[in-house]
Structures are given as C-alpha cells and as structure tokens.
Amino acid sequence: MHVLVVHNRYASAQPSGENKVVDQEAALLRAAGHRVEVFERRSDDIAARSLLGKVAVPLLVPWNPAVRAELAARLRAERPDVVHVHNVFPLLSPAVLAACADAGVPAVATLHNYTQVCPPGTLQRDGRPCTECVGSTPLPAVRHGCYRGSRLATVPLAVSLSVNRRRWWSGVERFFCISAAQRDVLVRAGMPAERLAVKHNFVPDPGARRSGAGEQVLYLGRLAEAKGVRLLMAAWDEIAASGGLGVPLVVAGAGPLEREVTAWAAGRDDVRYVGLYDTAQCRQAIARSVAVLAPSTWLEAFGLVVVEAMAAGVPTVAAGHGAFVELVEDGVTGLLHRPGEAASLASCIRRIAAEPARNREMGRAARRRYERGFSPAVGLERLVDAYRTAIAGRTESMGDGINGGK
User: Fold this and answer.
1) How many whole angstroms separate alpha carbon 186 and alpha carbon 334?
2) What is the pLDDT of residues 215-263, one digit of tens each?
3) pTM of this structure
4) What is the tens place of the pLDDT at every residue in 337-362?
5) Phi, psi of 316 (to 5 degrees)
6) 140-176, pLDDT tens digit by residue?
7) Is the pLDDT of residue 33 over 90?
8) How many CB atoms are located within 10 Å of the residue 83 CB?
C-alpha cells in the first residue's frame, strides 16, 4: 500500500505525543513493507520567517492556498492509495482536504484532540472541563480567549472551525478516534457517526521492563495546567506533610509551568525535576517506577504515557475521566482518582505504593493489557484495515456517482 502522511509537526521544545504517534505509525508501516511518504510543515520553522511572514501565519490557519496547490500536484504525480491527515495547524490548514479532492485520492484523518468541536482542542477553560462551543458556534472560545489566553490568537482557530466544519465532514472518508470517550463527545457534537472509528494508538515494545518494586514515582509529560501539574504538586505536598512515601517524585518534561515546577522542586529531597528526557531515557525512567502518574484535568482523548507504562509492566494512577477510564482498569492495571481532587490523587498514590505485592500484580496485568490491545502487531492490523475500508468507501462512492450520472 502507498500512504502519504500529512502532518504539521509541533514545536520540538516541548514533548509531543502526537509527533511521536505519527513517527511510530510511519515506521510500523514501512517495516511491514508499505510505502510511506510524508508531506509536512514544522512549527519550528516559523521562527526563521521574516516579520511579514510571521504576521501572515494566523491568516493561513483557516486556509492555505499554496499548500492546496503543492499537495494536489504531488498527489497527481505520485498517486498514493490513501492520504493520512494528522495535525494541520498552523501551517497546513484544511486546504489539504481540498487537495485530496482535487486529485481524487481518499483521505483519512486521526483526531488527536477535540479541535473539530473546540478551537483549542482541549474542552477545558480555567482549569475545568468546558463544552460551551460543542455543537454550537465557537464564539464563546473567542470571548474567553481560550487559546493561549488571547482573544486575538483564538480568532483564526474559531474561524477555521466555523468555515471548514462541513469540509472536514465531507472530505474525509474515515476519522480515527483514539478512544471511545473521544468518539462519544464528537458524535454528541453532531459529527457523522458512521465515519468515526475507534483506533487506539499503539506503543512499540520498549524492551525495558520493570524487574523490581521500583525506585520512584514518575510524572512524564507536558508541564501545563491541563495535564494536572498543579494538582500533582498539591497532592505531593499533602503526601510529604504526612510523612512521604520513601521514594521520590520525578518530574520529566517541559512547558509553560516549568519555572513554577523548578521553584517548587528546588531544595527538596523528595522531588526531582529532570527536564526533558529523550526516548531512551523515558523508557528507562518508566521501567524504574513504582507508578506513572497521569492526573490530567482535561478530558484526554487518549493518554500515550499510560500505555507506555503498561508496556513496561508499570501500573498507573490516572484521572477517572476521558480516555483514562477505558485505558486503566481501576484496581487491576492501576488506580483512578477523582478528577481535579488533590486529596483523591494523594490517596491513590499512597495506596499504589503501600502494597508492593499488589503493585507487582497490577504491573503484570498492565503488561497483559498492552499485549492484547496496544502492541505494534495490533496497531498495524487496525491501521491497514482502516485504510482498506476508506479506499473501498471512496471507490464505492465514485461508482455511485458514475451510475448516478448515467
């Protein structure tokens, strides 16, 4: 099969699970003998633009005509079987869908977040879940400045959502939702249910698996409010005030709360902030952990770090909402805490660290869950089946159009 992957890569200064998924899927397909090529833009390249070029970027968010022309020409020349669209913000835009239609190539799209119904894609405002724009116009997002706390920065996203909604719905043969929880939200928002398929992300086998009880509790991810970082700090302070766990909290990542986390961890022997880890360091850190923490306050569409922990045989403490509810079997492969409640998070961390024998059994159960649902073999099968379904659907609709024309 010949696949063209379309993706706007997120800035490299902060960890991106989405970039990781795109790279892993491409590598998986190539290893299985499929031809995979990439059409991409990089957010890192914005910094090198002229002042005028930087000013023009928001204007390209709803529609980039140059991308449409470039991609359509490439599709006509190369004739891939299917185009797989991931992120199009900010430099690609939904013009990629028009290019696929121009060239007559079927498109599928992975929905990594909620940008189809929420301009910033988080379904969160002021640290709390928010669905004010779901099924409605995105004007509330502009009014509240939901993207980066700025009304001006939110406008291009809101315009894109409004003017391109039907283009997405008609121009994509198959949407891949990365969890059933995400699909439920999107169906309730009015997206066409028959085009929304659940396809969980897979994780490569890390090779490194936990062999003992673990020597740390690990938070691995973006240092942002929506990821529950402030909630975690409050919970850990509560644990420390009651005598601690006997193992440190290791925080790895980068993001807008980096200074706050650095100041909080300074001078403490129960917390270590280690900055960004590369892939090998991430795998080693997970394999050394008593538990991996995922306290997000927003409704995560998936939760890659949870599955990475499963692959290493390590249980997770995660917020009991969004995709985590279907990823973590409470009391079996990890523990779910009440979302947004520091006391509940602290209690679950204490529990998962207090019983080593039960913790080890949870780790073994987590590994079995990974092998059944999130291994590369499972991921490849689901991905190729989804491509074939999209190609067949496009062929069928073209045939209907031809017959109708007669």
Assistant:
1) 27
2) 999 999 999 988 999 999 999 999 999 999 999 999 999 999 999 999 9
3) 0.86
4) 999 999 999 999 999 999 999 999 99
5) -125, 145
6) 999 999 999 999 999 999 999 999 999 998 999 999 9
7) yes
8) 25
DSSP 330: B
Pairing of strands 128-129, 124-125: antiparallel
- Which amino acid, one-letter code, is at 240? A
- How confident is the model at residue 283, as a pLDDT? 95
User: Cα Rg for the chain, rounded, in angstroms?
Assistant: 22
Q: What is the pLDDT of residue 396?
A: 62
Exposed/middle/buried for residue 151 (C-beta within 10 Å: 0-12, 13-18, 19+): middle
pLDDT in tens, 93-140: 999 999 999 999 999 999 999 999 999 998 988 877 898 998 889 999
d(CA 319, CA 306): 11
Phi then psi for residue 104, to 5 deg, are 70, 35
Residue limits of CATH 3.40.50.2000 in the chain:
2-202+376-405, 216-373
Kind and range of the H or E element at 284? helix 279-287
> What class, spelled out in words, does domain 216-373 have in CATH?
alpha beta
pLDDT for the residue numbered 78: 97
Is residue 349 within 8 Å of 239, Cβ to Cβ? yes
Q: Please say whether the structural domain 2-202+376-405 has been given the CATH code 3.40.50.2000.
A: yes
Q: In what order do the strands lie in the sheet with 107-111?
A: 35-42, 2-9, 82-85, 107-111, 174-177, 196-198
Contacts of 243 (CB under 8 A, 6+ apart): none
Burial 324-357 (b: 16+ CB within 10 A, else e): bbbbbeeeebbbbbebbbbebbbbbbbbbbeeee
Residue 140: which H helix or E strand, with range? helix 139-144
The pLDDT score that the predictor gives to residue 405 is: 47
User: Does residue 341 come out as left (phi exceeding 0), alpha (psi in the -120 to 50 range) or beta?
Assistant: beta
- Residues 349 and 218: their CA atoms lie apart, in Å, by 11
- Angle (nearest 5°) at CA 155 between 296 and 85: 65
